[in-house]
Amino acid sequence: MKTGLYFHNENNDRKLAYDLEKDEVKSLSADYYDPTLPTLIFIHGWQSGSMKEGYTPSFDNPDDILGDINYAKILKNPNSTVYGTDYTDIPTRSKKQPTDNSISYGTDIYTYRNHTNKSRQSWNIAVFDWVEYADESEVKDAEAKMWTTLGPQGIRKRKSDGSYTTDTELKALGIGVGQACARSIDKFMKSNFSGGDFRIAGHSLGGQMSTLVGKYLLDWNSVVPTRIELLDPFWSQWSKDYLNGDWVGERSRWYAQELYARKYVALTHYRSSLVTGTPFVGDANDEINDTAILVNLASWWTADQTKKHTYVEDWYFSTFANGQTVECKVNWWGRRRSTGYHVPSGAAPTGRILEMMRQNYRWTQVEGRREKNSSSHWFQRKNGRSGT
After folding, report:
1. Which residues share a beta bridge with 41?
2. Is 174 exposed, middle or buried (0-12, 13-18, 19+ CB in 10 A)?
3. Where are the domains positioned within the chain?
4. What are the mean pLDDT values of the chain's consecutive 10-residue runs (388 residues total)?
Protein backbone atom coordinates (compact mmCIF):
# COMPACT_ATOMS: atom_id res chain seq x y z
CA MET A 1 0.00 0.00 0.00
CA LYS A 2 1.29 3.44 -0.94
CA THR A 3 0.03 6.77 0.37
CA GLY A 4 -1.32 8.91 -2.43
CA LEU A 5 -4.19 10.14 -4.58
CA TYR A 6 -5.97 7.30 -6.38
CA PHE A 7 -8.59 7.74 -9.10
CA HIS A 8 -11.20 5.00 -9.52
CA ASN A 9 -13.09 3.59 -12.49
CA GLU A 10 -16.69 2.40 -12.20
CA ASN A 11 -15.54 -1.09 -11.15
CA ASN A 12 -13.64 0.43 -8.21
CA ASP A 13 -10.26 -0.39 -9.71
CA ARG A 14 -7.85 2.37 -8.81
CA LYS A 15 -4.71 4.01 -10.17
CA LEU A 16 -2.21 6.34 -8.55
CA ALA A 17 -2.30 9.87 -9.98
CA TYR A 18 0.94 11.22 -8.54
CA ASP A 19 3.92 9.48 -6.98
CA LEU A 20 5.01 11.58 -4.01
CA GLU A 21 8.34 9.83 -3.56
CA LYS A 22 9.38 10.10 -7.21
CA ASP A 23 7.66 13.45 -7.87
CA GLU A 24 6.05 11.81 -10.89
CA VAL A 25 2.69 12.65 -12.45
CA LYS A 26 0.98 9.56 -13.85
CA SER A 27 -0.96 9.31 -17.09
CA LEU A 28 -4.48 8.00 -16.56
CA SER A 29 -6.96 6.76 -19.15
CA ALA A 30 -10.34 8.48 -19.50
CA ASP A 31 -12.20 5.78 -17.57
CA TYR A 32 -10.19 6.88 -14.53
CA TYR A 33 -9.85 10.60 -15.15
CA ASP A 34 -11.36 12.98 -17.69
CA PRO A 35 -10.21 16.58 -17.09
CA THR A 36 -13.48 17.96 -18.51
CA LEU A 37 -15.63 16.27 -15.84
CA PRO A 38 -16.38 17.48 -12.29
CA THR A 39 -14.17 15.87 -9.67
CA LEU A 40 -14.82 14.51 -6.18
CA ILE A 41 -11.93 13.61 -3.88
CA PHE A 42 -12.66 11.69 -0.69
CA ILE A 43 -10.37 11.77 2.35
CA HIS A 44 -10.87 9.06 4.96
CA GLY A 45 -10.23 9.38 8.69
CA TRP A 46 -8.51 7.52 11.52
CA GLN A 47 -7.79 3.86 10.68
CA SER A 48 -6.67 2.07 13.85
CA GLY A 49 -5.77 -1.56 13.04
CA SER A 50 -6.56 -1.24 9.34
CA MET A 51 -3.10 -2.08 7.96
CA LYS A 52 -3.08 -5.53 9.57
CA GLU A 53 -6.61 -6.10 8.27
CA GLY A 54 -5.50 -5.19 4.74
CA TYR A 55 -8.10 -2.45 4.38
CA THR A 56 -8.06 -0.35 1.21
CA PRO A 57 -10.45 2.63 1.06
CA SER A 58 -12.71 2.68 -1.99
CA PHE A 59 -16.15 3.71 -3.23
CA ASP A 60 -17.57 0.25 -2.57
CA ASN A 61 -19.67 0.03 0.56
CA PRO A 62 -17.51 -1.75 3.17
CA ASP A 63 -19.75 -1.23 6.19
CA ASP A 64 -22.89 -2.83 4.78
CA ILE A 65 -25.16 -0.19 6.29
CA LEU A 66 -27.14 0.38 3.11
CA GLY A 67 -26.30 -2.98 1.56
CA ASP A 68 -23.86 -3.85 -1.22
CA ILE A 69 -23.75 -0.60 -3.20
CA ASN A 70 -21.01 0.34 -5.64
CA TYR A 71 -20.93 4.12 -5.37
CA ALA A 72 -18.22 4.25 -8.02
CA LYS A 73 -20.72 3.02 -10.60
CA ILE A 74 -23.35 5.49 -9.43
CA LEU A 75 -20.92 8.40 -9.70
CA LYS A 76 -19.07 7.34 -12.84
CA ASN A 77 -22.05 5.97 -14.77
CA PRO A 78 -25.18 7.49 -13.19
CA ASN A 79 -27.60 6.27 -15.87
CA SER A 80 -26.59 2.62 -15.57
CA THR A 81 -29.10 1.79 -12.82
CA VAL A 82 -32.13 3.49 -11.36
CA TYR A 83 -31.81 3.93 -7.60
CA GLY A 84 -34.60 5.35 -5.48
CA THR A 85 -37.78 6.82 -6.92
CA ASP A 86 -38.16 9.05 -9.94
CA TYR A 87 -41.22 11.26 -9.92
CA THR A 88 -42.34 12.60 -13.26
CA ASP A 89 -44.92 14.81 -11.60
CA ILE A 90 -45.13 16.69 -8.33
CA PRO A 91 -47.35 14.71 -5.92
CA THR A 92 -50.47 16.52 -4.83
CA ARG A 93 -51.79 16.94 -1.29
CA SER A 94 -53.59 13.62 -1.61
CA LYS A 95 -50.22 11.90 -2.07
CA LYS A 96 -48.83 12.59 1.36
CA GLN A 97 -45.58 10.87 2.25
CA PRO A 98 -45.43 8.53 5.27
CA THR A 99 -43.99 9.57 8.62
CA ASP A 100 -41.24 7.65 10.41
CA ASN A 101 -42.29 3.97 10.28
CA SER A 102 -45.96 4.99 10.47
CA ILE A 103 -45.41 6.57 13.90
CA SER A 104 -47.44 9.74 14.24
CA TYR A 105 -45.62 12.88 15.32
CA GLY A 106 -48.56 15.16 14.68
CA THR A 107 -47.42 15.76 11.14
CA ASP A 108 -49.39 16.28 8.00
CA ILE A 109 -47.16 16.71 4.98
CA TYR A 110 -48.80 18.85 2.29
CA THR A 111 -46.33 19.11 -0.52
CA TYR A 112 -44.03 17.27 -2.86
CA ARG A 113 -41.06 15.02 -2.51
CA ASN A 114 -39.37 15.39 -5.86
CA HIS A 115 -36.46 13.07 -6.54
CA THR A 116 -36.07 13.86 -10.22
CA ASN A 117 -33.03 15.95 -9.29
CA LYS A 118 -30.64 13.02 -9.10
CA SER A 119 -27.10 13.48 -10.25
CA ARG A 120 -27.08 12.61 -13.95
CA GLN A 121 -23.53 13.89 -14.26
CA SER A 122 -20.53 11.59 -14.51
CA TRP A 123 -17.76 12.39 -12.03
CA ASN A 124 -14.08 11.79 -11.68
CA ILE A 125 -13.75 10.16 -8.26
CA ALA A 126 -10.62 9.73 -6.17
CA VAL A 127 -9.56 8.71 -2.67
CA PHE A 128 -6.57 10.14 -0.89
CA ASP A 129 -5.32 6.98 0.81
CA TRP A 130 -3.23 7.63 3.93
CA VAL A 131 -4.17 4.47 5.85
CA GLU A 132 -0.56 3.58 6.68
CA TYR A 133 -0.16 6.93 8.48
CA ALA A 134 -3.71 7.01 9.91
CA ASP A 135 -3.25 3.63 11.59
CA GLU A 136 -2.46 4.65 15.18
CA SER A 137 -3.99 3.41 18.44
CA GLU A 138 -4.54 7.03 19.54
CA VAL A 139 -6.57 9.31 17.24
CA LYS A 140 -4.56 12.36 18.34
CA ASP A 141 -1.36 10.75 17.01
CA ALA A 142 -2.90 10.24 13.55
CA GLU A 143 -4.32 13.76 13.71
CA ALA A 144 -0.91 15.33 14.36
CA LYS A 145 0.55 13.70 11.25
CA MET A 146 -1.87 15.65 9.07
CA TRP A 147 -0.27 18.90 10.22
CA THR A 148 3.37 18.11 10.91
CA THR A 149 6.22 15.60 10.94
CA LEU A 150 6.96 16.55 14.56
CA GLY A 151 3.91 15.23 16.41
CA PRO A 152 3.92 12.73 19.31
CA GLN A 153 4.76 9.83 16.97
CA GLY A 154 6.65 11.79 14.35
CA ILE A 155 5.69 10.80 10.82
CA ARG A 156 5.97 7.05 11.26
CA LYS A 157 3.76 4.67 9.31
CA ARG A 158 2.40 1.23 10.05
CA LYS A 159 3.26 -1.87 8.06
CA SER A 160 0.96 -4.76 7.22
CA ASP A 161 2.43 -6.90 10.02
CA GLY A 162 1.38 -4.28 12.58
CA SER A 163 4.86 -2.92 13.26
CA TYR A 164 5.90 0.68 12.63
CA THR A 165 8.70 2.20 10.58
CA THR A 166 10.10 5.71 10.82
CA ASP A 167 11.83 5.39 7.45
CA THR A 168 9.04 7.03 5.44
CA GLU A 169 8.75 9.03 2.26
CA LEU A 170 7.03 11.91 4.07
CA LYS A 171 9.86 12.11 6.57
CA ALA A 172 12.29 12.35 3.65
CA LEU A 173 10.14 15.04 2.05
CA GLY A 174 9.71 16.87 5.37
CA ILE A 175 5.94 17.25 4.96
CA GLY A 176 2.84 16.18 6.87
CA VAL A 177 0.00 14.16 5.38
CA GLY A 178 -2.18 17.22 4.70
CA GLN A 179 0.54 18.84 2.62
CA ALA A 180 1.15 15.52 0.84
CA CYS A 181 -2.53 15.39 -0.16
CA ALA A 182 -2.47 18.99 -1.36
CA ARG A 183 0.74 18.41 -3.31
CA SER A 184 -0.79 15.38 -5.03
CA ILE A 185 -3.83 17.41 -6.11
CA ASP A 186 -1.72 20.38 -7.18
CA LYS A 187 0.70 18.33 -9.26
CA PHE A 188 -1.98 16.26 -10.98
CA MET A 189 -4.84 18.73 -11.44
CA LYS A 190 -3.46 22.28 -11.54
CA SER A 191 -2.97 22.31 -15.32
CA ASN A 192 -5.18 19.31 -16.03
CA PHE A 193 -8.70 20.21 -14.91
CA SER A 194 -11.52 22.11 -16.60
CA GLY A 195 -14.52 20.30 -15.12
CA GLY A 196 -15.93 23.18 -13.09
CA ASP A 197 -17.19 21.55 -9.89
CA PHE A 198 -14.34 20.29 -7.70
CA ARG A 199 -15.28 18.88 -4.30
CA ILE A 200 -13.27 17.54 -1.40
CA ALA A 201 -15.30 15.39 0.98
CA GLY A 202 -13.61 14.36 4.22
CA HIS A 203 -14.90 11.98 6.87
CA SER A 204 -13.97 12.33 10.56
CA LEU A 205 -10.26 13.31 10.63
CA GLY A 206 -10.53 13.58 6.85
CA GLY A 207 -12.97 16.47 7.31
CA GLN A 208 -10.38 18.33 9.34
CA MET A 209 -7.75 17.55 6.71
CA SER A 210 -9.95 18.85 3.91
CA THR A 211 -9.79 22.41 5.26
CA LEU A 212 -6.00 22.15 5.60
CA VAL A 213 -5.70 20.86 2.02
CA GLY A 214 -7.93 23.66 0.78
CA LYS A 215 -5.73 26.22 2.54
CA TYR A 216 -2.56 24.85 0.93
CA LEU A 217 -4.15 24.91 -2.54
CA LEU A 218 -5.36 28.46 -1.95
CA ASP A 219 -1.93 29.69 -0.84
CA TRP A 220 -0.23 27.99 -3.80
CA ASN A 221 -2.64 29.61 -6.28
CA SER A 222 -3.50 26.11 -7.43
CA VAL A 223 -6.79 24.47 -8.34
CA VAL A 224 -9.04 25.32 -5.38
CA PRO A 225 -12.09 23.23 -4.49
CA THR A 226 -15.44 24.82 -5.21
CA ARG A 227 -16.89 22.93 -2.27
CA ILE A 228 -15.71 21.20 0.90
CA GLU A 229 -17.94 18.59 2.54
CA LEU A 230 -17.29 17.92 6.24
CA LEU A 231 -18.74 14.47 6.95
CA ASP A 232 -19.10 14.20 10.75
CA PRO A 233 -15.67 15.85 11.10
CA PHE A 234 -13.46 15.26 14.13
CA TRP A 235 -11.22 17.76 15.90
CA SER A 236 -9.49 16.85 19.15
CA GLN A 237 -9.53 19.21 22.10
CA TRP A 238 -6.74 21.29 23.62
CA SER A 239 -3.96 23.43 22.23
CA LYS A 240 -1.16 21.84 20.18
CA ASP A 241 2.52 22.60 20.47
CA TYR A 242 2.94 21.83 16.77
CA LEU A 243 0.39 24.59 16.02
CA ASN A 244 2.01 27.17 18.31
CA GLY A 245 -0.67 26.68 20.93
CA ASP A 246 -3.71 26.80 18.61
CA TRP A 247 -6.48 24.20 18.67
CA VAL A 248 -6.92 22.20 15.46
CA GLY A 249 -10.57 23.29 15.37
CA GLU A 250 -9.48 26.94 15.44
CA ARG A 251 -7.19 26.42 12.47
CA SER A 252 -9.92 24.62 10.51
CA ARG A 253 -12.46 27.39 10.97
CA TRP A 254 -9.92 30.11 10.15
CA TYR A 255 -9.11 28.27 6.93
CA ALA A 256 -12.81 27.77 6.16
CA GLN A 257 -13.41 31.51 6.60
CA GLU A 258 -10.48 32.38 4.34
CA LEU A 259 -11.51 29.91 1.64
CA TYR A 260 -14.98 31.42 1.53
CA ALA A 261 -13.78 35.03 1.73
CA ARG A 262 -11.21 34.71 -1.03
CA LYS A 263 -12.68 32.11 -3.39
CA TYR A 264 -16.33 31.62 -2.30
CA VAL A 265 -15.65 27.98 -1.46
CA ALA A 266 -18.92 26.40 -0.33
CA LEU A 267 -18.74 24.51 2.98
CA THR A 268 -21.17 22.01 4.47
CA HIS A 269 -21.03 20.34 7.89
CA TYR A 270 -22.96 17.08 8.18
CA ARG A 271 -23.25 15.97 11.81
CA SER A 272 -24.38 12.37 12.30
CA SER A 273 -23.11 11.22 15.73
CA LEU A 274 -21.95 12.21 19.18
CA VAL A 275 -18.47 10.84 18.46
CA THR A 276 -17.09 14.13 17.26
CA GLY A 277 -18.17 16.07 20.35
CA THR A 278 -17.46 13.53 23.10
CA PRO A 279 -16.30 15.36 26.26
CA PHE A 280 -12.52 15.34 26.84
CA VAL A 281 -11.94 13.87 23.37
CA GLY A 282 -13.70 15.69 20.55
CA ASP A 283 -14.22 19.40 20.00
CA ALA A 284 -17.70 20.07 18.59
CA ASN A 285 -16.22 23.23 17.01
CA ASP A 286 -19.64 24.86 16.68
CA GLU A 287 -17.95 28.11 15.66
CA ILE A 288 -17.17 26.63 12.25
CA ASN A 289 -20.91 26.79 11.56
CA ASP A 290 -20.59 30.57 11.33
CA THR A 291 -19.19 29.75 7.88
CA ALA A 292 -20.30 26.23 7.06
CA ILE A 293 -23.91 25.05 6.74
CA LEU A 294 -24.91 22.62 9.51
CA VAL A 295 -27.04 19.59 8.62
CA ASN A 296 -28.06 17.27 11.48
CA LEU A 297 -28.78 13.64 10.56
CA ALA A 298 -31.02 11.75 13.01
CA SER A 299 -30.39 8.02 12.30
CA TRP A 300 -32.91 6.63 14.80
CA TRP A 301 -32.47 3.18 13.23
CA THR A 302 -29.46 2.56 15.50
CA ALA A 303 -28.21 3.63 18.93
CA ASP A 304 -24.62 2.73 18.00
CA GLN A 305 -22.67 5.99 17.75
CA THR A 306 -19.89 4.35 15.72
CA LYS A 307 -22.43 3.27 13.09
CA LYS A 308 -23.95 6.74 13.10
CA HIS A 309 -20.47 8.19 12.59
CA THR A 310 -19.73 5.88 9.65
CA TYR A 311 -23.21 6.16 8.13
CA VAL A 312 -22.71 9.74 6.96
CA GLU A 313 -20.36 8.48 4.21
CA ASP A 314 -23.06 6.18 2.84
CA TRP A 315 -25.71 8.87 3.22
CA TYR A 316 -23.70 11.44 1.30
CA PHE A 317 -22.77 9.17 -1.61
CA SER A 318 -26.26 7.64 -1.83
CA THR A 319 -27.81 11.08 -2.33
CA PHE A 320 -26.16 11.30 -5.74
CA ALA A 321 -28.49 8.45 -6.71
CA ASN A 322 -31.55 9.22 -4.61
CA GLY A 323 -31.73 12.92 -5.37
CA GLN A 324 -31.95 16.03 -3.26
CA THR A 325 -33.58 15.79 0.14
CA VAL A 326 -36.49 18.03 1.07
CA GLU A 327 -36.48 21.17 3.19
CA CYS A 328 -39.55 21.75 5.32
CA LYS A 329 -40.90 24.01 8.04
CA VAL A 330 -42.98 22.91 11.02
CA ASN A 331 -45.87 25.15 12.02
CA TRP A 332 -47.19 25.68 15.53
CA TRP A 333 -49.59 22.69 15.40
CA GLY A 334 -46.90 20.29 14.22
CA ARG A 335 -47.59 20.04 10.50
CA ARG A 336 -44.61 19.85 8.19
CA ARG A 337 -44.74 21.61 4.88
CA SER A 338 -42.08 21.68 2.24
CA THR A 339 -40.64 25.08 1.45
CA GLY A 340 -40.11 24.02 -2.17
CA TYR A 341 -36.35 23.99 -1.66
CA HIS A 342 -33.80 21.29 -0.92
CA VAL A 343 -31.14 20.84 1.73
CA PRO A 344 -27.40 20.14 1.32
CA SER A 345 -26.51 16.71 -0.04
CA GLY A 346 -24.32 15.23 -2.73
CA ALA A 347 -27.06 15.93 -5.27
CA ALA A 348 -27.54 19.58 -4.26
CA PRO A 349 -25.89 22.07 -6.65
CA THR A 350 -23.11 24.23 -5.28
CA GLY A 351 -25.03 27.40 -6.13
CA ARG A 352 -27.77 26.33 -3.72
CA ILE A 353 -25.15 25.70 -1.01
CA LEU A 354 -23.71 29.20 -1.43
CA GLU A 355 -27.21 30.66 -1.23
CA MET A 356 -27.82 28.83 2.04
CA MET A 357 -24.49 29.98 3.48
CA ARG A 358 -25.83 33.53 3.39
CA GLN A 359 -28.82 32.56 5.56
CA ASN A 360 -29.05 32.24 9.34
CA TYR A 361 -30.39 28.68 9.43
CA ARG A 362 -29.44 25.09 10.18
CA TRP A 363 -31.20 21.95 8.95
CA THR A 364 -32.29 19.01 11.15
CA GLN A 365 -33.77 15.71 9.98
CA VAL A 366 -37.41 15.25 10.99
CA GLU A 367 -38.71 12.62 8.54
CA GLY A 368 -37.28 9.22 7.63
CA ARG A 369 -35.38 9.12 10.89
CA ARG A 370 -35.86 5.36 11.18
CA GLU A 371 -34.96 4.84 7.52
CA LYS A 372 -31.40 4.53 6.23
CA ASN A 373 -32.30 5.41 2.65
CA SER A 374 -32.02 9.14 2.01
CA SER A 375 -34.95 9.17 -0.42
CA SER A 376 -37.38 9.40 2.53
CA HIS A 377 -35.51 12.12 4.42
CA TRP A 378 -36.93 15.55 5.17
CA PHE A 379 -35.09 18.28 7.07
CA GLN A 380 -36.62 21.10 9.07
CA ARG A 381 -35.16 24.55 8.52
CA LYS A 382 -34.43 26.03 11.94
CA ASN A 383 -33.33 29.49 12.99
CA GLY A 384 -29.71 29.83 14.03
CA ARG A 385 -26.59 28.25 12.59
CA SER A 386 -25.74 25.81 15.42
CA GLY A 387 -27.67 23.34 17.56
CA THR A 388 -29.73 20.20 17.05
Report:
1. 126, 200
2. exposed
3. 4-383
4. 94 97 97 97 97 92 73 84 34 35 29 43 96 97 98 96 96 98 98 95 98 98 98 96 97 98 98 84 94 97 94 93 87 85 92 95 95 92 95
